[in-house]
C-alpha cells in the first residue's frame, strides 16, 4: 500500500491550500514531494485525451475526442443522454479500453498505471449500485483500507449528510442516499482529481446543494473536478469551464462567457430610449456584430416582430428569472428597441453608438443565453438538421 | 497484498449471509457417516474420512451457489464499478475475490468439520493427527480449486444466467455428480476398448480420466493419505471395490493392475497435481479475459 497521500503532500497542500490556481503537478513528482516541481506545473493537464475513439461494433460512442482539463479547475462535461460522457469517464478510469487514441490522467497512463491513477482519483460513477447487506461503514472501510488512508467513515458521511445512516444496510438506501454514499467514497484520500459522473441524478435539492458545496470545497483544497451532467441549471453554478459533447464529439469548449460568445445563439439587448427609437435602431444596426435591430411597437403590428424575437433562443425562464422581453412587450413599447447581438460583448458598442446618435437610453436589459440554449444550439447544429428537429 | 481489504470485505459479507451457515449445517448432517466397512479398514481414522464426504456434492454446490454471481452479478448490477475505481489492478480484484470467497466458505466449513471431528474422536477414539492434517490441507486445496473455477467462470461470462447455466450443468452435473458414471462410456468410445466398470481393464488412460475431475482428484489424494485404496471414488466405495468378495463399479487401481505395474501418473500424489491444475488453469484463463476487455 503506497502512502501516496502522506506527509509531503499534506505540507504541500497547507502551503498552497485555498489558492484558486493551485497547481497540481502530475505524475510521480507529486509523490516525491519536491516543491521545485510546483512552479512548472501550472500548465500541467490533469486529464488529456488525444484522438480518443471508442467503438462498439460499427457505432462510435466516443469519436476523436481531444480533451484537456487543467489542474485546479472545475470542468463540466455536458451532453445529452447517450452523448458518450460516461463512456469517456469509463475510458479515463480504464473500465473500458480505447479503440484508438491516447489518454493521460494526472500525467499517467490509466491502464499501465491504474493503481497510481486510482490512488489519486476519487470517482462517483454513473449507473453503479451499492452492496446489499453491507453498511455505509463497510463500503467506506473498503476504500479507505485499499487506498491506505486514515479517513474516518463518520467524518466523510457527515460531509455528505449521511452520518445518521452509517450502520444501516445500504441495500435499504434511497437513490439519493446511495448517491451520497458513493460521493463519500470518492472523497477518500483527498483525491487530486475528483470525477463525478452525473452527480446530481437522483438527488433532491438539498443533495444537489451538497454536491455543489463539496465540489467547491474540494476544489479549494486543490483538487481538480471533472464532472459530467445533463442537468444544465447546475452547471453554471459549479464549473469554471465546460465542454459540450454530442454524439461522441466535442462540439464546444470554454468558459461560459466563451461559449456564449461563440455559440450560434443571439443575445437580445433591449433598449428603452428617450427620443427617436428609429434613429436608435439605425445607429444600433450599424454596429458590427449586430444581427438586426427593430423597434418594438405597441399594438397589433408589433406582435409578430416581438414574438419572432422571443422565439429565438429558449429564453431566460430556464434560469428561473423573469423574462424581460415578456414584460417589455406588454409595456408601452413605442420607445423600445430590440437589438439582437452575435455575442454579449457587443453590448457596450451598441450602447455607445446609440448614445452617440443623440438618443438617451433609459434602460438596457441584456438577456444572456442560458447554458441550456447554448447546449441546444450546439447539439442541434452538430446534428445538422438531423433527427433532433 | 493491496487486495487484502477487498478479500476481507468479501469474506465478511459472505459470513453475514445465511447461505454459508446453511452449508455448515448441511455438512454436519452429511459428513458424519460411520460404517462397518470403513471401521474395519481404517479404525479410528474413519473420522478423518468424514472430512472427505465434504467433497462430492455439498461443497461444490455450495461453492457455485455462493460464488457464481461474484463478478458477473456485480457487473450486471453495477457494483463492480465501485471495485474498479479502487487502486487495484484487475488481477488483484480477481485475487481478492477468490481469497475472500475462499475464506467466507472455509470458515463455516471448518467449524462444521471441527464439530464432526470432535464427535468422531469421542465416539471412535483418536486418529492419526498427521493424516488428519494432510487430509485437511488437501480439503482446503480442493475448496480453493472449486472457488477458482466458480469465480473464473463468473469473471469470464457477461451474464449471471450464463454463469449459473455453465456452472450448474457443466460443472456440477457433468464434472462433479456425473463424471464417474460417464467415464467408462466416454473412454471406451475414445480408446475403442470395451470397458466393464465392474471388471475394469488395466488401461492407464481410463483411470486417469476417472480422476481428472476436481472431486476425483481430491478423492485420489485423500484416499492415498488414508490408505483406503487408489481410487477417484470416495473412500467407502474404494474400500468396497478392493474387497475380493465384492463387485463394484467404482474404479480402483488395485482391481485392474497387479501391484507395482500401474503407471506412475496414477500415483495418489497425482491428485494434488490435478487439483493445482484446476486452480491455475481456470484462473489464468479468467485473468487473461478479465484483464483484456471492457468491464463497464
TrEMBL record, chain B:
Transmembrane parts of this sequence: 20-39, 51-71, 102-126, 132-157, 164-187, 269-290
Keywords for this protein: Membrane, Transmembrane, Transmembrane helix
The keyword Transit peptide is annotated on this UniProt entry: no
A cellular component term, taken from the record's GO annotations: plasma membrane
Domain of life: Archaea
Pfam family, one: ABC2_membrane_2
Presence of keyword Glycoprotein: no
Example GO molecular function: ABC-type transporter activity
Protein name in UniProt: Nitrite reductase
Organism: Natrarchaeobius chitinivorans
